[in-house]
Amino acid sequence: MKTATQPNNTYAPVAFDPGAEVARLKQTSPAFARAWNAQAEEFDALDALLEARKRAGLTQAQVADLMGVKQSSLARVEASLASHSHAPSLTTLRKYAQAVGCKLELRMVPQ
Q1: pTM for the model
Q2: Which residue range forms the structural domain that includes residue 73?
Q3: Would the pLDDT of 82 be above 60?
């Protein structure tokens, strides 16, 4: 029996769907939609890198080793795409692609 002095230790997770939240915010907040769209290319690039690494079944440390760089350097490359703080060079992207068993392709798509 629970008394007034005993804490409630019941685990009650809160459902959260990031994709649905982004969609909702893009619909309800013009400022959010503008900011999201301004970052779309960086998000796409980061998604491509992370998906390729996942598909290859490699950790960040393993990819870094294959590229001949430190894991912390690779972490900065991945994080920089998410934060838009730095754009990795084509040489770095080619090394990453090769490390995860891919070929780097760039495309120009008419708007």
Answers
A1: 0.66
A2: 41-106
A3: yes
